[in-house]
Specification:
elongated; disordered N terminus; single chain; alpha+beta; 11% strand; two-stranded parallel sheet
């Protein structure tokens, strides 16, 4: 008698299961998704207890979200948070695992499940070169090796890794991957502000809220994109450090560039050191310091030193370049604040072409 009762209960569940799935196919809403998940869990209870348990927990979470949205409506067009994207990816993985196990036995359930997978999948970004949201960091590094990292940053449970896109092309595009709890949460192409944070964290001895740090950051943000990628190429980076002209440090000082075992390699093609004098502290705003920084970076872009152009022509060429970059006003302020003073060694002067009609 007990066996007969058990069979009747299971038969009733199956009838309810099928009718619920048909209902899901007709009316797409949260309540029907919750029913689908619970019935799917029931269908897999004997054949795959662990998956059945995970699906039941998914249903409980979906019901909680449904209750929360009912009590506190949210904007349906609002962007998903990284945590929500990771959660959806985990849910998709669960549903895709369940689909092949029930599609031949319960085709109606499979129909509703396919629809749910399609709708969830439409909410999250597609894969990027094999990487996908929710991917474990260890698996990600099989596609994007640590040794190929262009820049990186860590902050608590959050990590950012920037790479050339493609990996063997350092001067056209970059892609930044954001990880939360060692799971890929999102990515963004050509995210210059993040790439600057990563770069200055590693290669700049100035730190915020220093005006000099702000000036360096501003120049890197405003300069042409290809030139920005040039100076931040990890294989030939630019290092920003202090240059003391007063106090005991004017006799000697030192800075330490520390490399840890987990850091990706750099400096294979050498590096450039930009030594910024402490007298830049005379500035009250970053603008005049920006001109000084831009001028030194222009020398790097023009390859003045490697080409042996260490002369006044090279200085003028650097100034012409930063004017093209848009730093004309900043250069004027820098000339007024940091220009040659009485008693200073002779400096290079700008050459002005005389035009017909000009007074001599």
């Amino acid at each position: 008698m007990m066996k007969t009762q058990s069979f009747l209960v299971k038969s009733f569940s199956l009838i309810f299961l099928l009718s619920a799935t048909v209902g899901f196919a007709k009316t797409d809403n949260d309540q029907n998704e919750i029913i689908l998940l619970n019935d799917l869990a029931a269908a897999l209870e004997d054949s795959n207890p662990q998956l059945s348990k995970n699906l039941s927990e998914f249903a409980e979470e979906r019901e909680k979200q449904w209750d929360d949205r009912t009590a506190h409506p949210i904007d349906p067009s609002a962007a998903l948070s990284p945590e929500e994207i990771v959660q959806i990816r985990q849910q998709l993985k669960l549903l895709n695992e369940a689909l092949p196990q029930i599609k031949s036995t319960y085709p109606l359930i499979a129909l509703g499940l396919k629809r749910m997978i399609k709708e969830l999948g439409a909410k999250v970004p597609v894969t990027f070169n094999g990487a996908f949201v929710g991917m474990q960091e260890s698996d990600f590094f099989n596609i994007y090796p640590v040794k190929s990292v262009r820049g990186l940053r860590h902050e608590g449970e959050d990590e950012w890794f920037t790479y050339n896109d493609p990996l063997d092309d350092p001067l056209h595009h970059i892609v930044t991957f954001y990880f939360h709890h060692q799971q890929l949460a999102q990515w963004k192409l050509d995210d210059r502000p993040e790439a600057i944070k990563e770069y200055l964290n590693e290669f700049c001895f100035y730190q915020p809220p220093s005006l000099t740090y702000e000036a360096i950051k501003n120049v890197m943000q405003r300069m042409p994109y290809e030139d920005f990628l040039n100076i931040t190429n990890r294989e030939r980076p630019v290092l920003f450090t202090e240059f003391y002209v007063e106090g005991t440090a004017r006799f000697a000082s030192s800075s330490e560039f520390i490399v840890t075992p987990n850091d990706p390699p750099c400096c294979k093609e050498g590096f450039t050191i930009v030594k910024l004098g402490m007298s830049l502290g005379l500035a009250k705003t970053p603008a005049p310091i920006e001109a000084v920084v831009a001028h030194e970076l222009a020398h790097r872009v023009l390859d003045s030193i490697r080409k042996g152009n260490v002369n006044c022509d090279a200085e003028r060429a650097a100034n012409r370049l930063i004017r093209k970059w848009g730093f004309t006003e900043e250069l004027k302020q820098a000339s007024q604040l940091f220009g040659q003073r009485k008693g200073d060694p002779a400096a290079c002067q700008e050459v002005h072409q005389t035009k017909p009609g000009d007074k001599k």
